[in-house]
Write a structure and sequence with these properties.
The complex is a heterodimer.
Chain A: H1 40-51, H2 58-70, H3 77-89, H4 93-107, H5 113-128, H6 133-136
Helix pairs in contact in A: 1-3, 3-4, 3-5, 4-5
Chain B: H1 7-18, H2 20-37, H3 47-53, H4 86-95, H5 104-114, H6 119-123, H7 128-153, H8 164-176, E1 189-190, E2 195-196
Antiparallel strand pairs in B: 1-2
Helix pairs in contact in B: 1-2
Classes of the chains: A mainly alpha, B mainly alpha.
Subcellular location (chain B): Mitochondrion inner membrane
Protein name (chain B): Cytochrome c oxidase subunit 4
Organism (chain B): Onychostoma macrolepis
Chain lengths: ~140, ~200
């Protein structure tokens, strides 16, 4: 995921994917000085599994998404893809669009993250028929 | 704003909590309060019931999940529009099919059913600060007018000791007294030449 977003340089897409921080940051809510620390891959896998639950319900989707947005990171495209597919299973297009908006908002000043995420998600967006906020015109107030 | 029992519901609550003997004591007070707070409303009707009756949307039930527009909570607890019209229900049914079949307007409509404000709308500021600043300056100016009027029409004359000659006499006396002769006032006076240094 896009940890240590502050360290992202502007020098191209390569640095965007998993710029390794010097420390292995644990899940944002806890910083252990001891004990097993979760790696980025484990974090991603855990969240992908969460959203991939076939009979996920609406509450779990909302809870998962709101929690994920609460972390100090921008979720990886694969987590977002799982979340969008969960929206599809729940027949909730509005939430899918909201998730995209939230990702853009979460990137803050790092304007290069959102286009990258959209680029990675494009096949899923096309397959499921999810419009981007820009297509709907809600990206500007 | 949460539901606060008024009128009969409030009296019932008081009876339940305090017992019937208190009711008589408080009944007149509650009556007066009911009359005061429910100025144009019937005293015997609780405000929530009355509001529901007159479709007053200001009453919000805080005991159930509410909709909110928050940047940190992208998916709110309940959709914005709860009571769907027939047309909206049809759209919701269509949502269960493939989303590629939906037109752009339908997708936008679905978004607006669930969300009141988009992220961009949440983030946009307003021009209210200009009004506030203007108001501040206006009232500062008005205060200045008041202060000027007060200075001219309320204050009397300054004491005679602030006239030119009085101050000259005072200065001469201070020199004669050798006020602050080392570093201060009289130090700056040249006693030989009888002038300021």
């Amino acid at each position: 995921m896009f940890r240590a977003a502050l360290r992202l340089s502007v020098s191209g897409a390569r640095s965007l994917t998993r710029s390794r921080p010097q420390y292995t940051a644990s899940v944002a809510a806890r910083s252990y000085s001891h004990g097993k620390q979760e790696t980025d891959e484990e974090f991603d896998a855990r969240w992908v599994t969460y959203f991939n639950k076939p009979d996920i319900d609406a509450w779990e989707l909302r809870k998962g998404m709101n929690t994920l947005i609460g972390y100090d990171l921008v979720p990886e495209p694969k987590i977002l893809e799982a979340a969008l597919r969960a929206c599809r299973r729940l027949n909730d297009l509005a939430s899918a669009i909201r998730i995209l908006e939230a990702v853009k908002d979460k990137s803050g000043p790092h304007k290069e993250i959102y286009p990258y995420v959209l680029q990675e998600l494009q096949p899923t967006l096309n397959e499921l028929g999810i419009p981007t906020p820009e297509e709907l015109g809600i990206d500007e107030a | 704003m949460c539901h606060i029992p008024r009128g009969r519901a409030r009296r019932q609550l008081l009876v339940d909590k305090l017992g019937p003997s208190y009711l008589k004591m408080l009944a007149s007070r509650a009556l007066v309060q009911g009359l005061q707070t429910g100025f144009w409303r019937r005293v015997s009707t609780s405000s929530a019931a009355w509001a529901a009756h007159t479709h007053d949307i200001d009453v919000v039930d805080c005991s159930v999940p509410q909709y909110n527009n928050r940047l940190d909570t992208p998916l709110p607890d309940v959709p914005f529009v709860r009571n769907l019209s027939a047309e909206q229900k049809k759209l919701k049914e269509k949502e269960k099919g493939s989303w590629t079949q939906l037109t752009k307007e339908e997708k936008l409509a679905l978004y607006r059913l669930t969300h009141e404000l988009s992220f961009a709308e949440m983030r946009q500021g307003s021009k209210e600060w200009m009004t506030v600043l203007g108001g501040i300056f206006f009232f500062l100016g008005f205060t200045g007018l008041l202060v000027w009027w007060q200075r001219v029409y309320v204050y009397g004359d300054v004491p005679p000791t602030l006239s030119e000659e009085s101050i000259a006499q005072q200065t001469q006396r201070m020199i004669d007294m050798r006020v602050n002769p080392v570093h201060g006032f009289s130090h700056k006076w040249d006693y030989e030449k009888k002038q300021w240094k």
